[in-house]
Structure formats: structure tokens, C-alpha cells
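Annex B. Sample input.
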Amino acid sequence: MSILEPRRSRVLALACAAVALSAASGVPTHEELINRVTGWTGLGRGAFVSVKPDMAVAVVRHDGPERASGLIRNVELRGEVTNEAAAREFGYRSVRSQVDLDCATRRDRVVRIDLYAEHNLGGRSQTRRPPGGWAHPSPDAYLSDVLDAVCAPASASLRLAAAGEPADPQPTAPGTGAGLREAPQKPSPPAIVRVADRAPANRPPPSSPVQEVISTAPAPPKPPAAPIVRVVDDSPAKPPRPLVLKTAARAPPKAVSAPMLALALGPAVPASDGAVVAQIAASESAAGASQALGGLKGRLTGGLTARVAPATVNGRQVYRAVVEGFSTRADARAFCSSRLKLGEDCFVR
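Annex B, continued. Sample output.
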């Protein structure tokens, strides 16, 4: 028996135990969730870029990156709620949305969102009002996974286009290897010249058949080729110019609502200190977040308070407009449900 067999057996036993524990706890595995949503939608497994216990999101199509700004527009997303408990909490079972992505700054802008009562965009539908502004998704949000899946190939395409290379190079022939130059052709052997073919054109035809005679005399020597002179430039090489991609001018920071897709798709995630908060907006400036909280004056009761919570997302400073003081997560969900009925944004963190 190989010395690796005991270790292999232990790994297999641990994997079986994990599957058994997942089945006993009622939490579906990743494979079960993928099979479930592909069966509902008919989409391929590779289309689903984010699969979580309560929602699976697929990228259906999108435009190519714009050469000037790098933006990717008209990204169509499909979401399927994976369990009935989450469907009752969200109020829908499937969702279709259209977003724009800014890969350079990792921001998204929701353009349209439609909710459906049944799976695979079936049943009664309703259109939610998108916030319309650019926002940074949280690292654990579904849109963060969408940015990772869409922006990586788009960035490679932009780099190739800027360098003047085709985005989709032709495949290399088998056995040649990528990057190999074509081998120089071997010189052709000297041609055999028939003496009869070199006769003058005005020569009278012979009266009797003439056999062809193959000339075996060596060809006259060619004049020597001119010597090749190489010019060596000893001057120091200039550093390559950095590649600069033009980006569209940014609008000044303004208060924007929390991303509607995060509102519709985002899971409930507790804050780092264990407290439950309800987020109603996010902004690139503290003043913008404070402005979003201005509409809550006189509307908070039962010990609820509002504040601006700074946070760092992917190395960028953002400011969240949050409401805190909830006794339980259920209270926070009820608060967000009342705002959603009024067409206002809110989700529990």
C-alpha cells in the first residue's frame, strides 16, 4: 500500500462526513444549487457566476467594453431564489435586471430591475424603480461576483486592443507551439534545363526526331552578394511610454441609494460588531450620506437612530447611511419592508 493511501482515505472520510452533515442540516450543497437553477432556467452551468444559499445569479449577455471609457453597458442578469424561505422574505422567485459596470473603479449602476412571482421569469411581474446612480458593491454581494466575472476578460480585451493586437487570435496549428516563428523555407534544388527548350525561337524545326539532351554542365557562378552591414545604436533605449486609457469625466459625488440589485438580491449580512443595521443609501462623501438620512427626521421611533458609517470597499472610502437600534433582525426586516412598500431602498446588514 502506498504511503499516500491512509491520507487519501482520511480526506475521503472527511468529505463524506461533510456531505452527510450538509444533508442532515438541510443546507443544499453547491452542486445541488447549480442543478436546481439550471433545471429551472435551461441556462448553462457556466452562466451562473454567483451561487449562494438563497440566490444564484447568471450573466446572460453584455456589450463589449467601450474603448474610451472602459464601461461595459447593458449587462443582463438573471437571478433565481433557491429556497422557499428566501422567496417568502424577498417576495419573488426570479429577477431580471440590467446594469452598467465600471471595471476601473469597481462600481455598478442598475438601469432596470423586474421581479417575477415564479421561477424562470414566470407568473406575475413588477418593475422596481432603480436608484440610477453609481455605487460600490460590498465584497460579499452578488454584484461583486458579477464584476469579477465580467471585468477580467474585458480588461484583457482592452489591453490587446490598445496594443493593436486582435482580441481573439487565431489558434496555433497543432505541434507548432505558440509564439514560434515560421521556419525559413529550404532553397529549391537547381532546375534541370533542357537544351532543346533553350534553342532560338526562329530555329527551323528538325527534319527528323531529335532526342532531348539533358545539360549536366554546372551553372555559371553567381556574383558574390554584397556584404551585410549592421548599424548598432549605442544610445540608451528610451523607456516605453505608459499606456493611458481615457476615462469619462466623473460626475461630482452625490448621494445615491443602495444598489437596487443588492436590495433585491443581497443576503442579510450582520455588521462587523454584531449589531443589526438597516442600510438605506451609500455615497462617496459623508455629506451625501447625511443628505440621504435627512428624510428620516421625525420618522424614527422606538429607540432607533440614524448615522453615517464609513467603510472601505476594495481600497475605496465609502459612507453608508444606516439606521440602528433594532432589537432583532426581524425588526430590521420589518423596517425595510415598510420602506420598500413606499418605493424606498433598504436592506439589512
